Amino acid sequence: MIRSPFWQRVDKWSRSSVPVGFTLFLLLLGLLPWHLPELGTIGISLVVISVFYWGLKKPQLMTPWSVLVIGLIGDLLGVTPMGVGTVSLLLLYAIVRSQARALRNMPFLVIWGAFILMAFITILVSWLLTAATDVHFPDIKPAIFLYLFDIVCYPPLSYVFDRLQRSLLPEK
Questions:
Q1: Which residue from 8, 114, 132, 161 puts its CA 20 to 30 A from 154's CA?
Q2: Residues 158, 66: Cα–Cα separation, whole Å
């Protein structure tokens, strides 16, 4: 089947937009009222998983600029105080990129352990920045529950991301 160059470019662009598009989808999914006790909205929590995974596996598709835009969209939608989500996600991305060479071919449990540590740092920084911008000291319990939620959600989301990567973003 012969395809025109235009449709080939559209196909390539749509495939390469999967990480950012799915991350934005998770951001919007996290804003839905899930009525989970102690969690409130899970907002940026799922985005932390996505930024970690795609920043590690496909950094050319999850760039610092896309992380910046995702963080700004989250901040504008009221997930976190203005700037907190953006700074937290960019910090996470920077840490992931600095450790990418060491983590790239590691077994899943090692990568999950690295995610657990990096998610802790990200959520702690987010909570501290929120505390610095808020008149009232925020409760730490929601941050702890979001952290535990991230730890539990990483394996299934990582599996979904891996399947997406293998089917839509084959190595060339």
A1: 132
A2: 19
